[in-house]
Amino acid sequence: MQAQSTPYSEQHRGARPGQLFSYPFRIFFLSLTLLSLVSIPAWVLQVTGTISLPLAMPGILWHQHEMLFGFLSAAIAGFLLTAVCVWTGTERTHGVRLFLLWSIWAVARVLLAVGEDLPIWLVQGVNLAFLPLVMVDAGWRIAKARQKRQLMILVVLGLFWLMQLGFVMRLDMVFAQGALILALALIGIIGGRITPAFSTGWLRQKGLSADRIRVVPALDLASVIAMILLLGALVSGLVTVTAILAIVAATLMLIRLYGWKGWLVYREPLLWILHLSILWVPVALVLLAGSLLAGWPTSAWTHAAGTGAIACLILGVISRVSLGHTGRAMELPSGMVLAFIAIHLAALVRVATAFGVFPWHAGVSASGLLWTFAYATFLALYTGILASPRADGKPG
Q1: I need a surface site. Which of 35, 87, 130, 249 has the fewest CB within 10 A?
Q2: How far apart are alpha carbons 279 and 377 in whole angstroms?
Q3: 105-131: per-residue pLDDT in tens?
Q4: Is residue 204 helix, strand or coil?
């Protein structure tokens, strides 16, 4: 059952643009939402021949780049630069410094969208600058606090940036696929921390037994290693090895999910959205193996990963973080459950379309409309929350 939501008027009371730069999650969560609401419809119109955009790279490559290194990178920056302050007890990035960091991300989006006639070094340089700055911001905090446990996130994020470097320099889809694998690895790392922890806390709060939830550190590490090996095999063109490692990584992720017992939290949308979204990770990996060994369409696994695992989990995480880090109760605003359902349907429709279940034009359009509805709902319900001071009066 969905919790009673905070009245809309109270959510938006005192909202002001400057508040967006008081904490990284505020501006980046809002920005990734706006980006998706512009770029997804624009891509559907572009790929169906309705419009022609002055893009700085071929259309399909622009779409892949913006979903991975625009949309996902904003989610990484918003979550990581918020969480790392909590983990390390350091002062948050805010104000002018946050504005400058965000500006690099925003300008990069504009340059790629309208930069057909601009110098390629300018477009590439601005786009490649963002993630290293995020890593530097997070890295010095981790080093200062001597939290070696967080280093794996930086390693995977560094590899993710190398995939972006290869992508913009060579315009080769294999680097986009490698970035997808690393995105799934990040989901395994971060999702593996927050999902069972949040589920355990909720069960205890409700007076229910949380002892059934199991987290096995060795299994978590094995899962990350399998994903990194998978990346190496994929970019090296080792077809059979890639398929085998994809199955291994999928199996490890399924075992972890079983240990987290997601069905125990089915009554709480802010939790089941996390479990259900991470389930797309093994689905995508199995589809990857099928594409290599059985000739299944490549777009099936890439959209299971991109729309399913990434877009679904991002919507679930930003919905939760935006409440908790603004001092509000974990009560999902009315209407967000429909958004959660819509984004998962968008993934299902897009994967089914790849297999020919729906006509391509209709399937792509329907998936795009479902995505747009989901993120437009978040925009409508959370803009005031993100642009308003904390409800508890604390800074940030």
Answers
A1: 87
A2: 23
A3: 999 999 999 999 999 999 999 999 999
A4: helix
pLDDT at 10 over 60: no
Provide, rounded to the nearest whole percent, the portion of the chain with pLDDT above 90.
86
Whole-angstrom distance, CA of residue 97 vs CA of residue 159: 25
Q: How far apart are CA 196 and CA 214, in angstroms?
A: 8
Residues 231, 159: contact at Cβ < 8 Å? yes
Determine the Cα–Cα distance for residues 396 and 391; give it in Å rounded to an integer: 10
CA distance 56 to 25: 28
pTM beyond 0.90: the answer is: yes
> What distance in Å separates the CA atoms of residue 347 and residue 93, rounded to the nearest whole number?
34
Number of H helices, E strands in the chain: 16, 0
Task: List the alpha helices (DSSP H) in 261-359.
Answer: 269-293, 298-303, 312-324, 336-354
Helix (H, G, I), strand (E, B) or coil at 212: coil
- With tokens 């909590």, the residue in question is 86
φ, ψ of residue 121 to 5 degrees: the values are: -65, -35
- Tokens encoding 106: 């925003």
Q: How far apart are CA 81 and CA 150, in angstroms?
A: 12
Is the Cβ–Cβ distance between 86 and 321 less than 8 Å?
no
Which of 226, 278, 288, 290 lies closest to 252 in space, CA to CA? Answer: 226
Phi, psi of 279 (to 5 degrees): -60, -25
- DSSP assignment of 108-137 equals HHHHHHH-TTS-HHHHHHHHHHHHHHHHHH
Position 233 pLDDT exceeds 50? yes
The two tokens of residue 17 are 């643009």
Task: Report the residue count for the chain.
Answer: 396
Give tens-digit pLDDT for 255-288.
Answer: 999 999 999 999 999 999 999 999 999 999 999 9
